[in-house]
Amino acid sequence: xxxxxxxxxxxxxxxxxxxxxxxxxxxxxxxxxxxxxxxxxxxxxxxxxxxxxxxxxxxxxxxxxxxxxxxxxxxxxxxxxxxxxxxxxxxxxxxxxxxxxxxxxxxxxxxxxxxxxxxxxxxxxxxxxxxxxxxxxxxxxxxxxxxxxxxxxxxxxxxxxxxxxxxxxxxxxxxxxxxxxxxxxxxxxxxxxxxxxxxxxxxxxxxxxxxxxxxxxxxxxxxxxxxxxxxxxxxxxxxxxxxxxxxxxxxxxxxxxxxxxxxxxxxxxxxxxxxxxxxxxxxxxxxxxxxxxxxxxxxxxxxxxxxxxxxxxxxxxxxxxxxxxxxxxxxxxxxxxxxxxxxxxxxxxxxxxxxxxxxxxxxxxxxxxxxxxxxxxxxxxxxxxxxxxxxxxxxxxxxxxxxxxxxxxxxxxxxxxxxxxxxxxxxxxxxxxxxxxxxxxxxxxxxxxxxxxxxxxxxxxxxxxxxxxxxxxxxxxxxxxxxxxxxxxxxxxxxxxxxxxxxxxxxxxxxxxxxxxxxxxxxxxx
Length: 526
Hints:
Jelly Rolls
């Protein structure tokens, strides 16, 4: 090679463009790659000369505990140049030279504790910890899950290859999570839809792969598949979590935050540390042909630990969570929603509403396409006044682009907490109990098609509507705390716009599921 590269670029070309041969020292297990008929030209002071055969030089390098990083071996003269340091300023040159071999130490996998791909117009990992390449140009679809950002689109023949550094999964606990939106699932056990994997060879325990097969999720180590039970459908967003407990040799699948399957089997034993992580395909399917994903993938993440059931539930169902801790207006949930404060201050990690223009507005989100059309909101209030006040205001944009809004949670003139919604231009209300002023009270409103709307105060069920079809659910919506803000003029005349809220609000959560009574209790006492 006659062109000049920074040394790190040379190493990348070595890894990606040449066949790597592994020389393993049984004591130190150091991996070495080589390029035949090539030498590295280095600066003075970065190499030492040695007389000896290639094998002798390799022994010196392997026993140097990585103080010697590479060497040129000249077969004809039985001599070597061993490189023990690289200049930060010198540009190294690789040159063609017959009867020579350039050997180099392959760095071991880094101890990576977390990875995240948002796929917001890029295939890169959030902190650039792992390089990504694609077998062909991939595209992105906007918006992604919850109507935000974008998701990566795989057309059924594309995939991503993640390497440099390589991710070590064997003998380690790990949790992978992602959102998927499949477009062409098939009811066939031999025609799966690969999501991601890390496969060394087609052999038991040497291949980890996840996929959708016969409409069920699969978590396999090329033996004893862990099968999910929920039937998945096309054109629906699903949150999948794959958890591996290396100590118990247990694989677990969660779909939308709920346990979907588990199985124990032999441990994962990928021995080649140069095995890349692939996304969008199962390259080593048992049938021999790759199984590609066709659809969208969003928010793929990895952590080198076992995530708890509560963590996975929140990752799957918690749309936004504003804790207001440490004087922050940032979303503490998995989606990093934007929140905007108007004429507000934080007092003891809670929002203080004490002006007519005080409001906190959460960015517009869209939960359409989520497999469960249920929803819940949960929060704490400490009102200074309960006389005819707006607490939570909601704006919807329906498919005909006609906006409408209403006070979802408010107080009436008698200080009763009111939960109301808007169904077919009709007001549906739940009247709760009175709420004490200057006392913290927890409020939860839930919805599902079967149970309709239900109101809980301090974790106690107060009242509900019974089964009701909330046809406007899963449309782009904007939630505002404290008042209707600038949306007052477009609200339907059937709704009275109450004066702004006066008091404190804290720990505001929005879920894409109907919280159960026990889940509400868990939230209250977290």
